[in-house]
Amino acid sequence: MIQRRLVQSIQGKMFGGKAIIVLGARQVGKTTLINDLVLDSRNDVLSLNGDDSDVRALLSDVNISSLTRLLGNNKVLFIDEAQRIPNIGLAVKICVDRIRDVQVIATGSSSFELLQTMSEPLTGRAWQWNMYPLSFQELVNHTDLLTEKRLLNERLIFGSYPDIINNTSTQMESLKLLSGSYLYRDLEGAPGVGRPDLLEKITRALALQIGSEVSTMEIARLVGADRLTVEKYIHLLEKAFIVFQVPALNRNVRNEIKKGRKFYFFDNGLRNAVINNFAPIHSRTDVGALWENYCMTERLKMHAAEENRVSAHFWRTTQQQEIDLIEEDSQANLSAFEFKWNAGKRGKFSKTFLNAYPTQERLTISPDNYDGFLMP
User: Fold this and answer.
1) Coil, strand, or helix at residue 311?
2) Where is 41: in which H helix or E strand?
3) How far is CA 281 from CA 61, 237, 287, 291, in A?
């Protein structure tokens, strides 16, 4: 079994007087992680799933008495897919405040704010982690560095969802299933989502623009919707851990892009499934975009595992000067990175940028050196 780096962080918070919340897309391994965690705790566990209608009915309207009866002698309450349960935040709040010897653990495949189920009741009462598909570091730890580097082309095409890694013979079929029945499951029930077909069109439009600055006005024209609707649907895609955005850096230079945004998918395989393109690397015209998406996502996973407070930006001017990634750490230090699939091609760091933004690190990331970029 591939060990997840979140385990130790979560173990250190068990029975610490707060709920434990793990958020992440469906199929990233949240249930497996928590089941392993509570098994190691050697406590009696009550496991419930928010996808079950009777569980939703049971937990949607609870009080201290009904929760006490439900828990019995169990010391751990595990609620999987908690975002599916109306008012689940209140149930968790009661457990945290009134039943102090019970550890509540809840997972969700979309940010709980998506359905307004958890936000206000749990203020100051929960530890929260985001969980992603398997990271480069986790896969290296499971095998070795050389083996994982040899699989780079496969990762660019099929990504690193646990089921894809563990069942390579069915990876294409599994990704198609994931991008179909699972991808929009929570979103389709969200307030204001009246057109699931529009959601799919917007997702595909974003998938075709990874690595490029995204204009919601352009997408709106493309899919036949107004800009505000497109903005709302993209926000929901972010809440469901399907895409994430990187804003433009704009502080000093007169002609730099002020409000630009790029969007990336949390997994290359999911992105390729959305556009139904699993062609091998050597025959693809979007290999540069795949490489950039992979590097951006894996870097995000690395910082999350290390609990680094780093903000990510890109930089571009109206004269098309551009840098793929600018990171700012908690001490306001800047680092600049360019992503080049061709290892022999060096990234050019604009003198305009360097004069305006002193950096402590400037690197071109290619298949020759990406392991150092993705492992602390």
Assistant:
1) strand
2) helix 30-41
3) 52, 27, 6, 10
pLDDT bin (cut points 50, 70, 90) of residue 6 is: very high
**Domain residue extents for the chain:** 6-130, 136-374
Q: Is 225 helix (H, G, I), strand (E, B) or coil?
A: coil
> How big is the CA angle at 211 (ends 247 and 245), to the nearest 5 degrees?
30
| AA letter at 261 | R
Other Cβ atoms closer than 10 A to 184: 20
- Closest C-alpha to 267, from 171, 127, 347, 188: 171
Q: What is the DSSP string of 137-175?
A: HHHHHHS-HHHHHHTHHHHHHH---HHHHH-GGGHHHHH
- How far is the C-alpha of 174 from the C-alpha of 180, rounded, in Å? 10
Compute the Cα dihedral for 63, 65, 68, 70 and give only its sign. negative
Query: In terms of C-beta density within 10 A (0-12 exposed, 13-18 middle, 19 or more buried), how is residue 163 classed?
Result: middle
Alpha-carbon dihedral sign for residues 158, 160, 162, 167: positive
Per DSSP, what are the bridge partners of residue 311?
328
What is the maximum alpha-carbon separation in the chain? 67
Please, what's the b/e burial string for 218-236 (b: 16 or more CB within 10 A of its CB; e: otherwise)? ebbeebebeeebbebbbeb
First-to-last alpha carbon distance for the chain, in angstroms, is 22
The CATH code belonging to domain 6-130 is 3.40.50.300
Q: What tens digit of pLDDT does each residue of 231-247 get?
A: 999 998 998 899 999 99
Q: What is the pLDDT of residues 196-224, one digit of tens each?
A: 789 899 999 999 999 999 999 999 999 99
Per-residue confidence at 115, pLDDT binned at 50, 70, 90?
Answer: very low
Strands 243-247, 261-265: pairing kind: antiparallel
Q: Which of 304, 309, 321 is nearest to 357 (CA)?
A: 321
